[in-house]
Amino acid sequence: MASVERKYRRTIIRTVMIGFMLSAFAFAGSAKLKDSDFVRVKDHIPTIYVDLRYASERNFMRKKVYNFHEAYLRYGTVKKLKRVQEALIKKGYSLKIWDAFRPTYAQWELWKVTPDARYVANPNKTFSPHSKGHTVDITMVSLDGAEIPMPTEFDTFTAKADRDYSDLSPEERRNGKILEDEMIRGGFKGNRNEWWHYSDAVQYPVEKIFVPAK
What we know:
Layout: H1 2-28, E1 38-40, H2 41-44, E2 49-50, E3 72-74, H3 75-90, E4 93-99, H4 104-113, E5 135-142, H5 170-185, E6 188-191, E7 194-200
Parallel strand pairs: 2-4
Antiparallel strand pairs: 1-3, 4-5, 5-7, 6-7
Helix pairs in contact: 3-5
């Protein structure tokens, strides 16, 4: 048991040190960035995991919605997300991004399949906050990227996906709350119908020009 605990502590220390060194390099190139600028998330949070579900067929539409695989957000939002990641690493967890900046054309595709404003923003009225670059669909995993019990899978449009948590297992409820508490503490607001959806409390306008690199 003692050897397992020592190995676990070494994993945390190694992850923190790697993140610190890579972040130092990222800082050198970020001195002139404005909070409203779009940046690649992993350039500033190298320890974060990225699995963009709409860049694959592993989503409720069963098809690709956009053709890039890197997560992009406003620099101001990334700075907040970095603090959340640092806090979770100390607890033995890591963030994993399922969706970040979403081009406006992708929102039309989602609305065609699911015209339900509880889950998908109606682009005839307003675009998703994802198109503002300050919103993420995010989950929590172990430090090595392994899945842990969370409330539901991504884009599960059921009662279990809300923030009530009462219909979950104790471990799912606990992990969902850890993520929620850290995200709120970091300056984000949650969506009541989707436990994975968080928006920066600081608002930005819809972005219609920027297109992430493929």
